[in-house]
Description:
Blueprint: H1 2-25, H2 30-52, H3 57-95, H4 100-131, H5 142-158, H6 163-168, H7 175-179, H8 186-207, H9 209-234, H10 237-251, H11 254-259, H12 261-286, H13 290-307, H14 314-323, H15 329-339, H16 345-359, H17 370-383, H18 393-404, H19 410-414, H20 419-444, H21 450-454
Helix pairs in contact: 1-3, 2-10, 2-13, 3-8, 3-9, 3-10, 3-15, 4-12, 4-15, 4-16, 4-17, 4-20, 5-18, 8-9, 10-13, 12-16, 12-20, 13-14, 13-20, 14-15, 14-20, 15-20, 16-17, 16-18, 16-20, 17-18
InterPro entries: Na-dicarboxylate_symporter, Na:dicarbo_symporter_sf
GO molecular function: L-cystine transmembrane transporter activity; symporter activity
Membrane topology: Multi-pass membrane protein
Amino acid sequence: MTNLLTVLVVLIFAAMVFAFYQMQKKHVKFSTRVFTGLGLGIVFGGILQLTLGNGSRVIEQSMDWIGIVGNGYVSLLQMLVMPLVFISIVGAFTKMKTSKNLGKISANVLFILLATTAIAALIGIVSVMIFGLDGATFTRGAAESARISELAERQEMVQNFSIPQQILSFIPTNVFADFAGMRSTSTIGVVVFAAFVGVAFLGVKRKAPKEADFFANIVESLYKIIMRIVTLVLRLTPYGVLALMTNVLATSDFEAIVNLGVFILASYAALLTVFLMHLLILIIFAKVSPVTYLKKAFPALSFAFTSRSSAGTLPMNIETQRKALGVDDATANFAGSFGISIGQNGCAGVYPAMLATIVAPTVGINVFEPQFIVMLIAIVTISSFGVAGVGGGATFASLIVLGAMNLPVAIVGLVISVEPLIDMARTAVNVSDSMVAGVVTSHRIHEIDRTILEDKEALIENN
């Protein structure tokens, strides 16, 4: 009976995939298909959860098959991350009209990413205070106990990981290992290496323009090939969103969601506030309508929400900035690449600040003291460098922050049951911040294309 039900569930999912294929053939708008996939995934996954129950063998087997579509799509995007980060940053140097823009772009992008992370940390602290969260009231189950034991091992890896050591870890000692993603800071290692290649190109351009032009042509050819692969993969987005959302709802622990409901509400309230801050920044510093931004950024944000991978969303992030928001190529590449490893507002800002504020009273710390708040915000902001844009980045950031504040790490394990649900919103906020950094920076250096930005038809599906 179990196998029969599994086949039935997979067949229903296959029918929905076929329906999406038919929608694509009829040229239904990309954003419409993505939104439909999001809604159908919620409904289908919710029905499976309510009818079959949490931990069902049917759900477990079905998700293995459905995961071929969802996890396969994320894997294809992650396959592109390191090549895209490298070629995007090097390409940004080769396309730069003047080397003077280099300092302006990097400084503006980094400032926005770090400043918003500091504000996000403060919002996380305030949210905990408003909702009155107390770490002493969090309960522990079997899953939580297992996670806490695992965290104890991971803490040994980071407890002696000082800020200077963290900064040193950004420097690649073996760039090929970083291209293979062998370290937690591999992404920023590739960013650093690409920046060195770009600076070297600028030097060669002054002394040997012929050779520099040859190199620039090679980079441009590689960039076009990689972006073509990106386009091919992005066409699978509606299918990936459908599968990922189905998996999230079908495998969620509804009982744990109820038990940790206040923590979830506090997290979403904080993340929503951070997102509203992004919209406010766009209005004040770039004169961009929130409605325009939401409409054009929706495909990237919705995929980030369902995939829970900032790195996996990078191709769509850069394409959205360039072809929907009017951001110049250099800035879009810098903002997108930096945003997956520096200053992630959700995973490295709100989350570790909330956990630290929740657990601090259990060791006798008054969280209302200005000294505690200032120190926590500073540590969160500095620690946000090098947080990987993949699943587990928030845990890594939290362990560093809690270790630096001499706070117990058990709180990270106590919320394991609702981690995926919160991580969806965290990832969407991360991606939003990098796009906001791109739009604002492009506006400040007077390179933003307002024609594209204000064109209602200039959406990512048109490319």
